[in-house]
Amino acid sequence: MALTLAGKTAIVTGAGSGINLCFARQLLSRHCNVIFADLALRPEAEELVASHESSSKSPAKAVFQKTDVRNWQQLSQMFRVADEHFGGADIVCPGAGVYEPPFSSFWYPPGCPPSKDPIDSSRYAILDINLTHPIRTTQLALSHFLNPSNPKSRQPVSPSNPKSILHITSTAGQVTPIAGAIYNATKHAINGFVRSLGPLDEEIGVRVTAVAPGVIKTPMWTEDPDKFKLITDRDEWVTPEFVAETMMDLLEKDEVEVISSVSASATTGLTTGDERQGTMMIKVQGGTILEVSKGKIRKVNQFMDPGPSGEGNTAGNMIEAERDIYGRLRSGRWGRVSS
């Protein structure tokens, strides 16, 4: 069931920048309180939080909670802060993520600089951030929704009192460029995770959905020279604002308009639409994943899906990353632990 956002509260990890900051801004504009859970805030995020730090300044309030999403105690603290400031949360977005960073990448094994994954830790930071954190946050959110800290003032979740958990996956959950080996794996996993929890919508009133953006014009790309060089003049960016608008649709609507990439008979969830115009309406429900490319939204189907389409889904210089990987593999030193 769609949510009315005014007076609600959202927890958004990674809200200090990028897509999640744009999403938080949209929520606040709908008079929804937001907990910004991140390691730090970019200047534009600091300004946004400051302008919503009290109810006298804005109908909605923003609270910054310093959070390392790899730390489960800090994830639990986000929900305690929601209880303390707002009596609880209604929307949870475990949106923080990284794209195959050198400090934790398949192509820089633990113990091999610039990897910072300790060889004796038995874990990869990228998995903790991109996969374990969304899964654990979802567990915490479900417990939070089902067991409110003050049941006299806040009712448990139910189909008549719905809540929402919104994930950020990627077109990398459908395609597999070699440069993003672990990143791709995490996004494929999140797709499966979101679909697995789809039935919670009808059964207990928790709608678990996701957006799958293409190449987004955020600091993760624009401020990383190694990633930015993969973009050519022919590639198109998807704006974080457009992704955030799509995320709002997943919260506020029961139907959304998407591009028609396959025939009506083969598309699940088709309700109305004119394929001659290239669009159709689909039902928004638990398990829905919406691909976001430049100016277009497409439903990602579980079976017989044609894959990403449209501008904003390519990094034309990916061959450069591949050459670098193959060169290191042939160097005779790859994977050797530094003494």
How are the elements arranged and paired?
Elements: E1 9-13, H1 18-29, E2 33-38, H2 43-50, E3 62-66, H3 72-86, E4 91-94, H4 125-146, E5 163-168, H5 181-196, H6 200-204, E6 206-213, H7 219-222, H8 225-228, H9 240-252, E7 255-259, E8 270-274, E9 279-283, E10 289-293, E11 296-299, H10 318-329
Parallel strand pairs: 1-2, 1-4, 2-3, 4-5, 5-6, 6-10
Antiparallel strand pairs: 7-9, 8-9, 10-11
Helix pairs in contact: 1-9, 3-4, 4-5
Count up the helices: 10
Question: Could you give the distance between the termini?
Answer: 56 Å
Q: What is the radius of gyration?
A: 20 Å
Shape: globular
How many distinct beta strands? 11
Q: The biggest beta sheet, please?
A: 8 strands, mixed
Overall structural class, as computed from helix and strand content, comes to: alpha/beta
Chain-averaged pLDDT = 88
Q: Which strand-content bin applies to the residues? A: 15-25%
Unreliable segments (pLDDT under 50, ≥5 consecutive)? 262-277
Helix content: 25-40%
Identify the strand order in the major beta sheet.
Answer: 3-2-1-4-5-6-10-11
Order of helices and strands: EHEHEHEHEHHEHHHEEEEEH
